[in-house]
Specification:
This protein has 17 helices and 10 strands. The chain is an alpha/beta fold. The strands form 2 sheets. It has a 6-stranded mixed sheet with strand order 1-2-10-7-8-9, sandwiched between helices. The structure holds pyridoxal-5'-phosphate.
């Protein structure tokens, strides 16, 4: 059980940034993480991702909030999964693991492959066949993992890796591994350290429900330490074709364009509901059409290009704002509520979907006059 965090000299925030350079979440937040002097640091210097003010996007989709995007697509392998993976693989290395395994909708495998490459641990990833984004598949393959395309969905793949990790000396790198959540909670620390306080609302896409659980854990720990005075309300969004937590039952054949959250039986579902209820938030759902619209809007109005899953909470915010959901908070606070939405993965990971929503380039002859004409000037 990992209930206590261990203090260590390396986790002193004052010494973690050396010569102005960032050395990863274990170096920076080690005092809040279950690491000791004996834990090897398997890092790609993840974390310290930008928290970007997004007034132009807010004006378009939710004018009654102060919107910030936590761009976790800026992590080394392009998703928040790196925060958890540096912890999970460091602990696997400490335990002497030779082989590690995970099921993945794409980003977990890309991250696991990378951190196992650092550690020299053999990495095996199980992916649902034909259901992961091209960039993620490329990452796992190039980074040297053994990539198995399972003729089933993510939930099938997860069932298999859990079974194998229980019966063989193979480290499990899915978010059932508690070290993953320990690492991922540092996203909440960074948000609070940047703002100087907790946001009023925290919006996030929900798939296997590890990240919403981890963020809530992070906020609660900072609160218990007295580093923040109030806690945010947690607002999760699922895709309508893969919304077990909204429906109240598992979905056997989840479907959505947002492949990162195409999960019908979330492993951390109970904890996600707990985070929702303890914080007084909600978990809602949005359609694929709403997701794709919000993905393009967000990229065009902020410069932050997230993959489709990241647009689920943004599409959700637009609806909540229209319904007047934030009105009460605004009146109580006497200002616009601050809302942080996590852009969990980089848009470049899913070029096929991006090209579909981006539209076609305008072909012009190689002449200045033709370019002016195409510009409408
Ligand atoms: C994994 C992932 C999610 C879902 O996170 P969970 O912890 O499974 O809920 C959302 N977005 C992206 C980009 C992801 O890689």
């Amino acid at each position: 059980m990992i209930t206590e965090t261990t203090t260590n000299s390396i986790g002193n925030p004052k010494s973690a940034i050396r010569n102005g350079m960032w050395h990863g979440i274990i170096a920076h937040y080690g005092q809040y993480l279950p690491v000791t002097e004996a834990t090897p640091r398997i890092t790609l210097h993840e974390g310290n991702t930008p928290l970007i003010h997004a007034p132009r996007l807010a004006a378009e989709i939710a004018p009654d909030i102060e919107l910030y995007l936590k761009f976790d697509g800026a992590n080394p392998t392009g998703s928040f999964k790196d925060r958890g993976m540096t912890m999970a693989v460091s602990k696997a290395a400490e335990d002497g693991a030779k082989v590690a395994i995970c099921a993945s909708t794409g980003n977990t495998s890309a991250s696991a492959a990378a951190y196992c490459a650092v550690a020299g641990i053999r990495c095996v990833v199980l992916l649902p066949r034909n259901a992961i984004a091209l960039g993620k598949l490329a990452q796992a393959l190039v980074q040297g993992a053994t990539v198995l395309a399972v003729e089933g969905n993510f939930d099938d793949a997860l069932r298999i890796v859990v079974q194998l990790s229980q019966t063989h000396p193979i480290a499990l790198l899915n978010s059932l591994n508690p070290y993953r959540l320990e690492g991922q909670k540092t996203g909440a620390f960074e948000v609070c350290d940047f703002l100087g306080h907790a946001p009023d609302f925290h919006a996030i896409p929900v798939g296997n429900a590890g990240n919403i659980t981890a963020y809530w854990k992070g906020y609660k720990e900072y609160h218990a330490e007295g580093r923040i005075e109030a806690l945010p309300k947690m607002i999760g969004f699922q895709a309508a074709g893969a919304a077990p937590l909204v429906m109240g039952h598992g979905i056997d054949k989840p479907e959505t364009v947002a492949t990162a959250i195409r999960i019908g039986h979330p492993a951390r579902g109970e904890e996600a509901l707990q985070a929702r209820d303890e914080s007084g938030g909600l978990i809602g759902m949005v359609s694929d059409a709403e997701i794709l619209k919000a993905q393009k809007q967000a990229a065009a109005l902020t410069g932050v290009f997230g993959e489709p899953a990241c647009a689920a909470p943004l599409a959700g915010l637009a609806k909540l704002s229209q319904e007047g959901y934030f009105r009460e908070a605004r009146e109580q606070l006497g200002r616009k509520p601050v809302l942080v939405s996590v852009v969990t993965g980089h848009g470049l990971k899913d070029p096929n979907t991006a090209i579909q929503i981006g539209g076609e380039p305008i072909v012009v002859p190689a002449e200045a006059e033709a370019v002016l004409q195409a510009m409408g000037l």
